[in-house]
Write a structure and sequence with these properties.
This protein has about 70 residues and is mostly helical. It is built from two helices and no strands. Helix 1 (about 10-30) runs antiparallel to helix 2. The longest helix has about 35 residues, at about 35-65. About 5% of the residues are buried.
């Protein structure tokens, strides 16, 4: 993979998103109270925010590669 100034953030964001999905599955398996619904909503909102950040960072990375703004 070509290195850009955005490259370092991509693995961290992907890992965070994976952990959030695991947490979401675990919370969903233990749905017993209304509080869990609030927790699921919080996790879903965080997943959406991290996904948006990941997509934006991937686009910035690709734009940097196309522009030739790479790290040697």
């Amino acid at each position: 993979m070509t290195e850009t100034r955005h490259s370092h953030a991509l693995p961290e964001l992907r890992f965070s998103l994976s952990l959030l999905y695991v947490g979401r599955v675990l919370l969903g398996m233990n749905k017993t109270t209304v509080l869990d619904d609030e927790r699921l909503t919080d996790v879903d909102e965080r997943i959406e925010a991290i996904t948006d950040e990941l997509v934006a960072t991937e686009l910035l990375h690709e734009a940097a590669v196309l522009a030739g703004d790479v790290i040697d």
